[in-house]
Amino acid sequence: MAGLSINSITKRFGETEVLRDVTLDIADAEFVSLVGPSGCGKSTLLRIIAGLEDPTGGEIAIDGEAVTGMRAADRNLSMVFQSYALYPHLTVAENIAVPLRMRSLSAGQRLPVIGPFLPGSKDKRAEITAAVKDAAEMLEIGALLDRKPGQLSGGQRQRVALGRALVRSPAAFLLDEPLSNLDAKLRVQTRAEIAQLHRRLNATFIYVTHDQVEAMTMSDRIAVMMDGEILQCDSPSIIYEDPNDIRVAEFIGSPK
Ligand code: ADP
Ligand code: MG
User: Cα–chain-centroid distance for residue 55?
Assistant: First the structure.
């Protein structure tokens, strides 16, 4: 597990400055929510941390080691998207196994797009099968391993996406509005399960949401972002009771 340092990150898309000097240190095993209105730069920041996008300036470090320029696959971070991003033609077990299969490939080798699969030795295959089973059981989808994503509910699909994130034992989890496609009841349930996962794994989480209530209930700290800047990053109670900016108070709904 790992601490993350985000150091003076800027990002431009053409003329548009989407991130302006974003600095944030996240401790090992901390749960930090990143909140702010749509378009403020949350996903862009997460993608830069994950290595899916290059910053225009600044540095990202994981456990003190600069990773700027390092490929996403080498950063040992797991990202979970709102859209789940599962492979429709693969089973649940095969979807969860994808990161482990990727890891077992040698440099330059490509993963065959269509399964049946599991390259490498018999031992390696047994190891992957066991890891997939463990992750699936932790998320209570152990009975669904042979199904295809099309045969699952939205909540079950999101668990498969979480399983795929979990299976590689990442240094940190980056979640981008993972619950926003779920209905209200399922959202509350899955929110509790993510919080439980955080406690069990003792892992570092960055959790992007535009839902203040979600952030207030789950986080060690909340970073409030607006127009490409982090206005404040503090515990939920400080953010709520002592916002340092009128825009923070308005967004969180503080009595100020
Ligand atoms: P959020 O996740 O907070 O809703 P985003 O990080 O997705 O915000 O987007 C921040 C801003 O950057 C938006 O104005 C968006 O239109 C812009 N943006 C994001 N990705 C690109 C891109 N690839 N090219 C141009 N503009 C982009
Ligand atoms: Mg977004």
Answer: 18
| Distance from C-alpha of 149 to C-alpha of 10, rounded to nearest angstrom | 37
Read off the pTM. Answer: 0.90
Model ipTM?
0.98
Determine contact, residues 132/92, Cβ cutoff 8 Å: no
CA distances from residue 191 to 49, 209, 215 in whole angstroms, order as listed: 23, 11, 10
**How confident is the model at residue 109, as a pLDDT?**
62
Relative to the alpha carbon of 18, which ligand is closest?
Answer: 1
Q: Please report the pLDDT score of residue 96 as a whole number.
A: 95
Placement of tokens 């941390």 in the chain = 49
Strands (E), 69-125: 77-81
Positions of the chain with pLDDT under 50: 114
Quote the CA–CA distance of 234 and 243 in Å, as a whole number.
9
Instruction: Tell me the CA distances in angstroms from 80 to 94, 141, 162, 166, 199, one per residue in order.
Output: 17, 17, 7, 10, 18
What span, in angstroms and rounded, lies between the C-alpha atoms of 97 and 116? 12
| Mutation pick for ligand 1 pocket among 13, 19, 208 (CB with most ligand atoms within 8 Å) | 13
Q: How far is the CA of 45 from the centre of ligand 2 (A)?
A: 9
